[in-house]
Design goal:
It is a single chain. The chain has 2 domains: 220 residues, 3-Layer(aba) Sandwich (Rossmann fold); 93 residues, Tyrosyl-Transfer RNA Synthetase. The chain contains 15 helices and 5 strands. Strand 1, helix 1 and strand 2 form a beta-alpha-beta unit. The longest helix is centred in the C-terminal third of the chain and has 30 residues. Bound molecules: tryptophan (TRP).
Length: 353
Amino acid sequence: MSEKKRPVILSGIRPTGRLHYGNYFGAIYHFLRLQEQEAERYYFIADYHALTTITEPKGIFEQTLDMLRTYIACGLDPAKSIVYRQSDLPCTAELTLLLGMITNIGHLERGTTYKDKFSQLEDNPKVEGNPLSYGLLGYPVLMAADILIVRADQVPVGDDQRQHVEMACDIAQKFNSRFGEVLHIPEAVSRNALRLPGLDGSSKMGKSDNNTLDLLDDPKTALKKIQGVPTTTDPLPLDTDSNEPEMVIPKMPPGVGVLYRLLHLLAPEDVYLDFLGKYRRGEKFYGMLKKTLAQYVAEFNAPIIEKFHAPENSDDFIKDFLRDNAKKVTPVALETVEGCREAIGIGHSLYRA
Ligand code: TRP
């Protein structure tokens, strides 16, 4: 067979339940585009990873189902990708354990997720629970196992996750140099993700900041949220002739900037330009801008809401889909784990087929 092997793409998604526009333009949109590429695609819901920040034991499974339903409603084609739950591939935990044996603690302490939590705790020692767990420190090892277990070629991630993918490459290289060329070294692929500001004008839309516009918001909810965007500041001069959102939006008051950012993403170019003209001329138009934007949001959300609630997108469908995909990925993963067991010296599992 001289045919070129299709590249293996892998990415993980943390189960956060309801999805918002920040998730859509930061990640979902890119996943949909990758569907058009000739490749083998593995996407998994990182439910083990979710446990590193869990404060309540309930709900991760329900959130996983809801989130997948939303992905499918947005256009993720179940026939084009293998989507599974991380915990349905428990040999990932076994590989994590093996990789953990060769990973230095010092290396992990430099991980961004761990470092952030560590400094948060220094600022505020009374944080609830035990945020500095062994699991949190090991977050990058688990992530390395996710990536290496399916022998991924490309790992598309946002900038915040790049370091973790690089750590996965380091761990794999170290394993290979000690025990032989067993693991396939991937490359991180930047997603060039757009970071959407929050409806409160803050720099990031995020579930925990309560400033999100959601994909399942009905028209009334969307309008109410958009009307609440702070626009009391007078327009600031744009001092540029450019109409590019990257050029003009940072010069606007934050709340107004969010409205224009969304309008640019959702409305035809001429509508965006028309409102930009009004801004430049200093007209009073914020009420109109908010109403117009809310209409585009309603149009964008309508088909997603409809597909989300469609009878074929049921819990049973999602569960069957996850089960079938876990069956497909398991032999691929087990081959890697068995190869590592052999290389590290404990030999193949005696009971696994
Ligand atoms: N840590 C990633 C995030 O928070 C999710 C994730 C887990 C992941 N394992 C991965 C992403 C492996 C890419 C590859 O978004």
